[in-house]
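Before the break, one more example. Copy the sequence into your notebook; we will annotate it together after we see the structure.
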Amino acid sequence: MITKIYPIVGMHCASCKRLIEKMVSKVPGVSAVEVNYAAEQMKVVYDENKVSTQDLIAAVSSAGSYRLITASDSDEIVLADPNQAKKIIDKHKLLSDHQEHASALRQQEYLSLRSRVVLVALLSLPFFILMIYMILAKLGWTNMPMSPWGYLRIDKFNYQIDLFYLGQFLLATPIVFIGGKQFFQSAWSALRVKSANMDSLISLGVAVAWLYSTLVTFFSWLFSDLKVEVFFEAAVFITFFILLGRLFEARAKGQASDAIKALLQLGAKEAIVIRDNKEIKIPVSEVVQGDILIVRPGEKIPVDGEIIFGNSTVDEAMITGESMPVEKNVGDKVIGATINKMGSFKFRAEKVGSDTLLSQIIKMVQEAQSSTPPIQKLADKISAVFVPIVITIAILAFLFWLLLAPRLGLLPPDVSIWQLAVYIAITILIIACPCALGLATPTAVMVGAGKAAKSGILIKDATALEWANQIKKIVFDKTGTLTKGEPTVTDCQILTDKDKKEILSLAYAVEHISEHPLSMAITNYAKQYDLQFDLEVEDFQSLTGLGVSGVVAGKKILLGNEKLLKSQNININAFDNLSKAWKNNGKTLAYMAIDNELVAVFALADVVKNEARDSIVKLHALGITTIMLTGDNEVTARAIAKQLGIDEVIAEVMPQDKAEIIKKIQAETQGKVAMVGDGINDAPALAQADIGIAMGTGTDVAIETGSVVLVKGSLDKVVETIELSRLTFSIIKQNLFWAFGYNIIAIPIAAGLLYPSMKLLLSPIMAAAAMAFSSISVVLNSVRLKSLTSKNKLISNTFFYIFIFTFVVLVFYFSFMLSMEMK
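Here is what the structure looks like once it is written out:
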C-alpha cells in the first residue's frame, strides 16, 4: 500500500468532496481516500499493483467534473477531461513542480471566474435599477404601472405578452444559462452518478425561478385568475451573488493556503557547483548527493549539507522560526533555503530533492492540511445527506403553502398562493449551504498548520492539532529535551594558594586529547580563559571509568572521579562540604591532582536549556501538569525538576519501560497525554502518547515517530504548539457554530416561519447573498487565525461578531423591503 496526495483543481462546493471520495473509493485496490475541499487535495491509499494512475483518472472523470490531478511522483499532469487539459495547457506552460502547476491552474480558474462575475454584473445592472424602482414604488415614493411597456397582442389567437416581462426574459435568460452554466453542468454530472451537490440546489432554485417566470410571461392565461409577478430578477441576482461568493471564497481560500505557497517559494532555484575543478551554475534539481557547492554572501543555500571550508552566519528563520542568525563553521550542518548572511563557504551536499528538510516540511504541512480531525466527522456526515434533505424540505414547504396554509387561515386574501409557494421553495433551495459546514474545519486546519510551520513547528496530521488542544499532562524526557544533552562545567573550585590559569592550562593539556564528554566539557571551560594551550603531554592515558592522566612539563597530572584519586591514595577531604552540596544538586565531580596533591575540583552537569524554566511556568499557566521521565538517578532528576518547577518525577526508568509508564499515565488522566523527547529510546513512548512531540535536534527515529516535530528543538515551541492548537480550535468551534446555526435558523425562516406573525419573508436574492456570505465568513474567520494571538483574541473576536451581526441585520432589512409585494 502506498499513500499519495494529488492536487485537485475545480472544486467549488463541499459536496464535491463527497462525490470524488465516493467514486474513487469504488476502485478495487483503493483502501482509503480523503478529499480536503479547502486545500483542494486528495489523499489516497492504494495498492500500486492493483491501481494505476489511469484508474484514478477514470474514477475522477466518472464524477463528471473537470478536475485536475497531478502525479506526485513525476511531472506528469493528468486531467479528468481532455478538452479541459488542452485549454489549460495551451494557456500555461507545464511547470516542473506539480504543486506550482496546480497553483497556476487555480489562478487561471480564478481569473476566468472573475471575468464571468464582471460580465454578469454588467448585464444585471438593468435588474438592479428595476429592483430599486420596485422598492420605491412599494414605498409609495414613485408610481409604477402594472405593465409599464404595454402588451404584445395577437388577436387572432386571443394571445398577449407583457412586454415588460418579455424584456426581463430576454435579459435574464443569457445571464442564467451562460453566466450560470457551471451550476447546471455540475448538477447534471452529479445526477448522472445518482448523487446531488450544492449546485443541485442552486440550479434547481434558479431553474424554478426562471421556469415559473417564463410560464407567467408566455402563458399568462394559466394564471388568469391570480395576481402573479415574475422572478427573473431573483434568478439573475441568485446567479450573480453565487458567482460573486465563489470568487471571494476562492480568494480567501488562497489566503488560507499562503503557507504552502510561501514554502514552495523558499527554495533556491540555482546552485553553484564545483565539477572538474570548475564552478558551474546549475538548476537545484540537478544537484546530486556528494556535490561540493559554493555559497556567497546574500545567497540562498540550495540543499542540505555540511560545511567543509569557510565560515559564516546563516539566517534560518524561515525554517526554524528563530529570528537570530546562527554562526556556522567547518563541520556544521546547513539547511537548504536558508540565507547566507556574511562569509562565503563550501559545503558538501548530503540531502537533495525530496530528502531536504524543506521538502519534508512541505510534505508534512500538506499531509496535515489534507487530513481530517475528529471534530469534522459530524459535519461530514451531515453534509452527506444535506442536499436531499433540503430538496425534501423545499417540496414540503411548497405543498404546505399551496394547499394547507390557505385552509389554516395563514394567508391574507389578496396574496397569490402559487407565487408565494414558489417564492418560498426557491428561497429554501438557495439559502441552504453545506459549503460552510465543509469549510469550517479544513480552512482553520490549513491556516493553523501553515502558521505552525512558519514558526518551526511541524504538525503531521489534523488529529494531533486537535488533541494538542486537550492536553492535560506533558511528560518530558530529561537528557536533550529539558537539558542541553551535553555536560557543562557549572562550577570550579581551586585551592587558594594555586594559580588558576596554570591549573586550567594543565587541565586543558590532558583533557583536550580525550574524546570523553566530561573531558570535552572541561576543555571547553578552559578555552574561555587566556591560557597556554601548546603544552606537550607525555605518557597520556585514558583510564576507563576513572579519568585521564599524563605528564605535562615534568608534572604528573591526574584528572578524574573520586575513585581515581583514592586509588592513588590522594586525600580529597579539602572539598568535602562543597562536594556534598554539589552532589545533592545532581552534579558530577571531577577532581584534579598534580604530583599526587589535590589542587582543584570541577562540578559538571547536563545544564537545563535556557528557555526550560519559562516554558514550564507557561505550561502551568495553561493548566497542564508536567512530568519528568528519565533513566537518570533519583537525586539528579529531582534536582533538575526542582530547578525547573516540574510537578512529578519518574526516575531510573529503563528505556523499554517508558511506553508502559506513558500508558499508565494515560489511564489515570482525564484528557490527552503528550510526550516530549529526542532519543531513540524515546520512540516507543512518543508512539504510545496521544501526542508525541519530537525535538528536531534529536534522532531520525524520534522525529519519524512524533506526531509533532519542533525543528529547532526549543521548549518554548511546546507552549506555542498548545497555544496555537487552542486558538485554531476556538476558530473551528466558531466556524461550526456559525455553519450549523446559519442553516438551523435560515432554513425555517426561508420556509416562511415568520410570515404568519410578521409578514416577513426572506427574499431569494438575499438568500443567495446570505448563502455566499456564510461560506466566505467561515473562510475569512479562519484566515483571521494568521494574526490571532492569545493577547488580541478578545478584540479580534468582538470585531468578527459585530461583522456577522451587521450582515444579518442587513439581510433581514433588505428581505423586508424586497418581500413587501407578498403582503
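The chain has a mean pLDDT of 82. The longest strand covers residues 597-605. Try to locate both features in your own notes.
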